[in-house]
């Protein structure tokens, strides 16, 4: 990966070992062609996509036993793509998406590193309609509620790309924006189920982290 220092992570999930190429640290930033500037991503935020965060691991673990038969699945903010890799290994119909300009390259690297087929990828800018992306039975995401301004954008993305009968699964470490999204999804006809859990090793109750599932029948 030109311009960046990376490291390899080993993750055990569902009886399989996954190799992930990730950025070495949060200081990895190289933008000689002003790609970050054009995308509106600050130097402080640029490297966030390239790490495996606790919420991402929780979502990927949940996908190990998630019902996939006959379902078209979209991952939002895929980052390194661990959940998409898990679903791809299981034979799911999975499309990964992210706004970060490097996400597709890391997804390809990690797919090849795990001897998996290429995963469909869409560079998705939430405020911009993408009718070519189509509709999905399931939409998943991890730690995608970290900015309040993104919540209504996310609600619109879900409205545009969820089928009439759909399931939304989001893992969130407790950033404070989940209740607002839930109110918007309830207005769209969803019912919410919440499972509180620890996202960090040795974490004890009461847990801030949540696995949230919204279903619309």
From TrEMBL:
Question: What InterPro entries does the annotation carry?
Answer: Methyltransf_16, SAM-dependent_MTases_sf
PANTHER family noted in UniProt? HEPATOCELLULAR CARCINOMA-ASSOCIATED ANTIGEN
Lineage of source species: Bacteria, Pseudomonadati, Pseudomonadota, Gammaproteobacteria, Lysobacterales
Does Transferase appear among the keywords?
yes
Q: Which GO terms describe its molecular function?
A: methyltransferase activity
Protein's name according to its UniProt entry = Methyltransferase type 12
Kindly state which keywords UniProt assigns to this record, in alphabetical order: Methyltransferase, Transferase
Q: Which GO terms describe its biological process?
A: methylation
Question: What is the scientific name of the source organism?
Answer: Oleiagrimonas soli
